């Protein structure tokens, strides 16, 4: 038996795997063990097959029949951030041909090693090139890495609501099929100089989500995993953030946006547990791969030790009666201790020095500036074909209606504006911002109109997508642009 090695291992971490290397590794693994099931997500925007490795079950039904928590691991969503890709392949090998068989014995693991294959193969030494003056980039492998965006220029981690990319639509189908209890999304950070080997986070739009899974991950699971990982390996981890003043850790530690275009926030809306992993840019490629492997193992161990609890919290999560659909800036959560380096090292942009604790305020809480009561359903007019297509891409169930009259709440558009959209992809994009008023009235159902119930599994996602004033809904991404006009009725009604 010839144990497969990743390209990173074969080159002593001077290079990262091309997509053909990923495919060859997966094929070699499948040829040597029956313990791994290889499926396909579909094809990328440029036609490359996207393999999914499944360990510990033959189907979602099999996993649930055997009482196994389902864990989804996604890597290489940004194809310059390559540690997760190598880590997943190594773990898959060691869980089938090596010493880690305990994981698939107790868990169902669904592994996506290369979510952005087209961006991955655009290897260049200039991608994510280290620029410490601007606090950008990372310590790259000598051979370079891929691009942040897909081959078609789309940022997949801003695409969870608009589902513009082929890859995003494939992942939505995969997610809805397996409905994982915990999802892990592997990234590499850049930005502030601190003393953590990896930072982590979860959904930040807590006021919009089924509460129990998010609160459990943030308050119980991640702190326990962080403590256990450091005790076992010495690797330091903490919640993701950046300093408000890059020369002063005491200025405050601030997390990322609550918009559900980000994967962790989107999955929070679904009522499932999510963990964002951000390996630290300023340690070596080898070290970033190691810390990614070790924290994934720690999460797996936690899921085994708390399997009944994890399954129960996910399966019993209730959707919120009130959904925040627009958020303000991060607010102060309280005081924390951040481990960084001494101030002289930070200000000189050195990523080594004496590990130093700093007390600061933690800006990690987001409060909605606009919320709505969840209606029983939404009525969407049949001529809103672009929006209907996107709802179906998400996996949201739509029901045909008969001709009748309904009591409903109707929106009238008061204003329509455009605003620029940052970091969505290669092309400049604009978002549509609508302000509308709502009134109760009797509406006539037309042939082809559809009903979207909010008590379905993706009901909270449907609310966020269909409210016209949502900061990340279908209006925002232009799927209603053809019918929006000041003074005109919006093409979706709320059914109380």
The neighbouring-strand order within the major sheet is 1-2-4-3-5-10-6-7
Which architecture of the largest domain per CATH? Answer: 3-Layer(aba) Sandwich
Per the CATH scheme, the topology name of the largest domain is Aminopeptidase
How many distinct helices?
14
- Quantity of strands, as a count: 20
Count of folded domains: 2
Q: C-alpha Rg, in Å? A: 23 Å
CA-CA gap between termini: 63 Å
CATH superfamily of the largest domain: Zn peptidases
The stretches of 5 or more residues where confidence is low (pLDDT under 50) are none
pLDDT averaged over residues: 97
Helical/strand content category: alpha+beta
Overview of the molecule:
Helix 2 runs parallel beside helix 4 (83-96), helix 4 (83-96) packs across helix 10 and helix 8 packs across helix 10 (285-305). This protein has helices at residues 7-10, 19-32, 60-65, 83-96, 102-106, 117-120, 166-178, 211-233, 263-270, 285-305, 307-315, 343-347, 385-394, 459-466; strands at residues 36-43, 49-55, 70-75, 108-112, 182-188, 198-201, 237-239, 242-245, 248-254, 273-279, 322-327, 331-341, 355-365, 368-373, 377-380, 399-400, 405-421, 429-444, 450-453, 489-495. It folds into two domains: 7-365, Zn peptidases (Aminopeptidase), CATH 3.40.630; 374-495, no CATH class. The relative contact order is 0.12. 29% of the residues lie in helices and 29% in strands. With 496 residues, it is an alpha+beta fold. The strands form four sheets. The protein has an eight-stranded mixed sheet, sandwiched between helices. A six-stranded antiparallel sheet has the order 16-19-15-20-17-18. The protein contains 14 helices and 20 strands.
């Amino acid at each position: 038996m010839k144990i497969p090695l990743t390209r990173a291992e074969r080159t002593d971490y001077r290079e990262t795997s091309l997509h053909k290397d990923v495919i060859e590794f997966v094929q070699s693994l499948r040829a040597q063990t029956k313990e791994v099931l290889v499926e396909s997500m579909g094809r990328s925007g440029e036609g490359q097959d996207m393999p999914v490795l499944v360990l510990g079950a033959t189907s979602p039904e099999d996993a649930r029949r055997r009482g196994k928590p389902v864990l989804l691991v996604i890597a290489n969503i940004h194809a310059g951030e390559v540690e997760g890709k190598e880590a997943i392949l190594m773990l898959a090998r060691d869980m089938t041909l090596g010493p880690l068989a305990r994981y698939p014995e107790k868990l169902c693991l669904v592994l996506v090693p290369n979510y952005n294959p087209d961006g991955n193969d655009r290897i260049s030494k200039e991608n994510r090139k280290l620029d410490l003056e601007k606090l950008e980039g990372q310590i790259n492998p000598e051979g370079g890495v891929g691009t942040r965006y897909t081959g078609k220029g789309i940022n997949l981690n801003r695409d969870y609501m608009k589902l513009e990319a082929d890859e995003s639509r494939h992942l939505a189908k995969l997610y809805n099929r397996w409905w994982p209890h915990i999802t892990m999304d592997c990234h590499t950070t850049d930005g502030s100089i601190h003393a953590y080997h990896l930072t982590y986070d979860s959904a930040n739009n807590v006021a919009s989500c089924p509460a129990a899974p998010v609160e459990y991950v943030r308050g119980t699971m991640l702190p326990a995993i962080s403590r256990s990982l450091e005790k076992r390996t010495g690797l330091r981890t903490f919640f993701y953030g950046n300093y408000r003043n890059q020369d002063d850790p005491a200025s405050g530690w601030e997390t990322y946006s609550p918009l559900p275009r980000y994967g962790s926030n989107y999955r929070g809306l679904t009522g499932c547990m999510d963990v964002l992993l951000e390996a630290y840019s300023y340690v070596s490629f080898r070290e970033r791969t190691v810390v990614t492997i070790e924290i994934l193992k720690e999460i797996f161990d936690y899921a085994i030790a708390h399997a009944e609890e994890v399954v129960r919290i996910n399966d019993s999560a209730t959707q919120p009666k009130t959904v925040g659909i627009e958020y303000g800036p991060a607010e102060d959560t309280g005081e924390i201790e951040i481990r960084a380096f001494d101030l002289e090292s930070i200000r000189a942009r050195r990523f080594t020095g004496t590990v130093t604790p700093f007390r600061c305020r933690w800006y990690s809480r987001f409060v909605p500036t606009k919320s709505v009561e969840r209606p029983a359903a939404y009525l969407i007019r049949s001529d809103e074909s672009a929006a209907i297509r996107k709802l179906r891409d998400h996996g949201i169930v739509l029901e045909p209606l008969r001709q009748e009259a309904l009591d409903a709440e109707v929106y009238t558009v008061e204003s329509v504006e455009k605003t620029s959209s940052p970091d969505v992809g290669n092309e400049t994009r604009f978002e549509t911002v609508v302000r509308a008023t709502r009134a109760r009235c009797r509406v006539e159902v037309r042939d082809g109109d559809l009903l979207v119930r909010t008590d379905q599994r993706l009901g909270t996602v449907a609310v966020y997508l269909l409210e016209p004033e949502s900061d990340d809904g279908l209006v925002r991404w232009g799927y209603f642009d053809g019918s929006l006009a000041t003074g005109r009725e919006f093409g979706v009604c709320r059914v109380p």
